Amino acid sequence: MRNLQARYARDRVILFVVVIGTILAALPLTLVLFYAVVNGFSSLDWNFFTKGPKPPGETGGGMAPAIVGTLVITGTGLLIATPFGIAAGILMAEYPDNKLNPTLRLLSDTLNGMPAILKGLLAYVLVVKAQGSFSGFSGALAMAFIMVPIIAKSTESMLKLVPWNIREAGLALGLPRWRVILSLVLPAARGGVVTGMLLATARAAGEAAPLIFTAFGNTLLTLNLSQPMDALPLRLYAYAISPYEDWHRLAWAAALVLLALVVLTSLLARWATRGRF
Amino acid sequence: MQQASTQSALIKRKTSAIYRVLGDRIFLAVVLLLALSLIALTLGLGYFLYLGGSQTINKEGFFGFLTGTTWDPALRLEFGIWPYVVGTLITSLAALVLSVPVALAAAIFTAEYAPRWLAGIINYLVDLMAAVPSVVYGIWGIFVLAPFLREAFYLPVFLWASENAPWLVRYLGNPAGYGLFTGIVVLSSMIIPFTAALSRDAISLVPVAQREGAYALGATRWEVMQMVILPYARGGIFAGAMLALGRALGETMAIAMVIGNGNILPYTLFGPASTMPAVIALELKEAVEDLHYSAIIGVGFFLFLIAFIVNATASYLLNKLKVSEQRF
């Protein structure tokens, strides 16, 4: 056995290394948050939320079409994704011996990890190429592909948290199984399921890659899903790689808005599921 | 459960058989149908990408397309995706190597050393990090990280090499700031949370009795970690790294914004490079020629193959070991 002092010394050295590693791990996020606030906060004014983009070279302008576009595209995506995601969650949680489940769980998790850009590419092949034009709807479809596996996973875990007694009580009262699921289990898990949908929306809302060749971007405000539509991450990307100082300023502001969205939804999610884990 | 339903069957109800039996069947059928479309979506993703890319893949041959090193959509219409495949593999694997030790340190610190309140804060930050959009990392990479790395690292190294080790210069490449190494740094900071969260979960699944046993034998904290916890959590940590690799392979915007987008092999350390997701994002909407368009979708198909293998392995391991990201 080695000397006890040496073993303690070794323990302290390791602790030091581990602390340094932890600081390094937290560093990128801290820096991103810091620079987004420093560079973006001063540009977050009334104009940012109400004005459209200005032509290159002119200062001012805002991101109203992009904000509205992101709301419309992710909202439509959520509407498309919800039934599929919740159904998959119900199947995995409420019918545990279904033969489909192992495959479904594996493929759903795999789909969750698949690159978002491929989901955009699928929406491109299915909608844009078939119709011959970029559209907000194809972007919404790409968003839905991103959201479905997230909603499925969170619905499954939330339904599993509902005590089995509740189902037995419902069945004992003579309710058929589908009524037990729809009227007892789902309402009991409502908060968690909605939170999962919210997190899926926040994840999808930040994606620019699948929207480049589906929603395409648009400098005009439009609510028409068959037209090209703008989105916040898309506009951020376009402005960040542009050569204009004023556009860089707006891009940082957009980054700050996206970060705020992420922070708010995650805080809300923590609050909604507090004490459950 | 079984008992409960037989009991309920004993009670006389006014509801009709249609409502009960047919209702259950219809409900299950609808749920199955919707869930099946999720499976169809995953497999259809590969199928449609192959279909879209088949024109160029057939022209160049399956392996010719994969291993060709010329990507020329303008003049010769020759398409080989090897530079992009190499770029994707180099950036992802290098980012994984850089991020795993750091992520593991964070997981170990929060699971074993940190006081509860500090662990809570770090865990929250790590979970938040996974949700930060790629473009936000991208804009930070363009305006903060790349200029910083150029001034603090690339230029000094380049100048030193050109004076003292000229043979090194051609491996270093143009120290403009936007290139392979910047891409790797951004990518490694983006995938830290995936490994960290899953390793943390794997460590927390180690039975308390095992740790206490080791402590009772007089082991120090690090010895417990090394001899009891890490061997037990090995599988989960590996699965977490696999998941992070899957994310790294598909990361698009941040990489496209900082990697310089040059597709001529061999890549140099500081010089421009490119990846499969980046070329899809940058070229698809400008493709005019049918062959070019089909080639880009073909890149998507090969990216699908790589990402599917990595992600399916990760999902299989995570489900088997029952390790999960703490989602909230």
Describe it.
The complex is a heterodimer of chains A (277) and B (328). Chain A is mostly helical. Chain A folds into 2 domains: 4-43; 48-272, MetI-like (MetI-like fold, Orthogonal Bundle). Chain A contains 11 helices and no strands. Chain A starts with a helix and ends in a 5-residue tail after the last helix. The mean pLDDT of chain A is 88. Chain B is mainly α. Chain B has a single domain (45-321), classed as MetI-like fold. Chain B has 13 helices and 2 strands; from the N terminus they run αααββαααααααααα. Chain B has helices at 2-10, 17-60, 62-67, 82-113, 116-131, 134-164, 166-172, 180-204, 208-216, 221-250, 253-258, 276-283, 290-321; strands at residues 71-72, 78-79. Chain B has a two-stranded antiparallel sheet with strand order 1-2. In chain B, strand 1 and strand 2 form a beta hairpin. Chain B is flat, with a radius of gyration of 25 Å. Chain B starts with a helix and ends in a 7-residue tail after the last helix. The mean pLDDT of chain B is 85. At the A-B interface, helix 1, helix 3, helix 4, helix 5 and helix 6 of A face helix 1, helix 2, helix 4, helix 5 and helix 6 of B.
